[in-house]
Amino acid sequence: MSNSEGNGIVLAEVINTLEDFAPKALAESWDNTGLLVQPYTARLITKILLTNDLTEKVAQEAYNHGCEMIVSYHPPIFAPLKSVVQSSWKERIVSFLLENRISLYSPHTSWDSTQGGVNDWLASAFPYYEATPIIPGVNPNTGAGRFLKLNSNISLTEAVARVKKVTSLKHVRLALGCGKSMSDTVQTVALCAGSGGSVLKNVSNADLFLTGEMLHHDVLDAAQRGISVILTNHSDSERGFLRGFSSQLQNKLNNQIQVLVSEYDKDPLTTV
């Protein structure tokens, strides 16, 4: 395949590199991962934009930077589209990408499950000697969530500070476990990036749950069982992974391309 527009690598090579890191087989069965938009006329890839969520602003950002590809952690095409018209923002994005020949790939839960992925990034907030998937996959080293055994006990105050540091957040939400105080120690942590209620609800032997969001009654249940809960907002428990992965991906592709991280991507919720 050739391209008169400049140097770069073919789309298939980028996809192979992404799937060497996190095979599609690691994704949950309900998920919609992989190549979601492929323009009819191929272009070599010279720039990739990484984003947690693909909004119209982020799509325009990719175009402004001259990116031929977007890797969006969350798949913007999830429910089936019955049309590609201008009345819906998701359909406008697909139309915009096709018109400007920008490919779209979404890894989502394959990045959660894989070793060195989003959950392992979130786990890096803590000093641990063992991290195991809460719901193991076919490979026992991959799967949903992580259960951490810490090197040494830390206070809940320190745990909160560590989460803020790794996520670059000024505020998180905290539910104290029944009978617990901020000075109580944490020995074990169960975490799940994103919406972790379904993964965490059957964990009984953790001192602390960490996730992006949980239903009120799941938080209440955990707290009544003596488990403290830290919530960051959904995508704030995931987005920070992109910073480190951008350089990893660029290196994996032998620095033949430039990998950028979106400056417009942010969680829709803020604490005011």
Description:
The chain is α/β, with parallel strands linked by helices and 272 residues long. It folds into 2 domains: 11-111, Udp-n-acetylmuramoylalanyl-d-glutamate--2,6- Diaminopimelate Ligase, Chain: A, domain 1, CATH 3.40.1390.30; 115-237, Udp-n-acetylmuramoylalanyl-d-glutamate--2,6- Diaminopimelate Ligase, Chain: A, domain 1 (3-Layer(aba) Sandwich), CATH 3.40.1390.30. Helix content is 29%, strand content 24%. It is built from 9 helices and 13 strands. The chain has helices at residues 11-21, 56-64, 89-99, 109-113, 118-123, 156-167, 197-200, 216-224, 241-252; strands spanning 34-37, 47-51, 69-72, 103-106, 128-132, 135-136, 143-144, 146-155, 173-175, 185-195, 208-213, 228-231, 258-261. Strands 5-8-10-11-12-9 form a 6-stranded mixed beta sheet. The radius of gyration is 20 Å and the shape is elongated. The model is unreliable at 1-6 (pLDDT under 50). A divalent metal cation binds at residues 74, 112, 234, 238. This is NIF3-like protein 1. Keywords: Metal-binding.
Helix/strand structural class = alpha/beta
> Architecture of the largest domain, CATH level 2?
3-Layer(aba) Sandwich
Count, helices: 9
Give the proportion of residues in helices: 25-40%
| Main sheet characteristics | 6 strands, mixed
- % residues in beta strands: 15-25%
Which regions have little confidence, pLDDT < 50, spanning 5+ residues?
1-6
Number of domains: 2
How large is the radius of gyration? 20 Å
Q: CATH top level of the largest domain? A: Alpha Beta
Order of helices and strands: HEEHEHEHHEEEEHEEHEHEHE
Fourth CATH level, the homologous superfamily of the largest domain: NIF3 (NGG1p interacting factor 3)-like
Within the largest sheet, what's the order of strands?
Answer: 5-8-10-11-12-9
Mean pLDDT: 95
What's the count of strands? Answer: 13
Family: Belongs to the GTP cyclohydrolase I type 2/NIF3 family.
GO molecular function: metal ion binding
Pfam families: DUF34_NIF3 (PF01784)
InterPro entries: DUF34/NIF3, DUF34/NIF3_sf
